# Entry
Amino acid sequence: MKTYTTMDAIGDILVIYGIVIVVSMLVAVVIRAIVWVLSRNPAQSEAKAPAKPAPAAVPVLAGGVPQEHLVVITAAIAAMLGAHRIVRIDTPGRGYGWTSEARSAHHTSHTPHKP
# Structure
């Protein structure tokens, strides 16, 4: 009966390492092919289809703010603060002062106190 030596273990490790390299390279090639196919598809369909004119109506956002007002607000913020983006425009609802005060009290309760 033959014993399993250190050299046998190193050989097996190198074989497994080689198999992992080959499989990962095949996966990378498949991903690269998928990206290449998907990146070519919109360019071909855009060349075939003529451009449609944009509608003339001013769209209104979900919060009831017209798009023109949003552009003016964004321009004013960019002029005063630099490059920012508006995440949400919403009507003021219930106040959250009590929750932020409780959260602040909770967070400050974890600070170590000096003796």
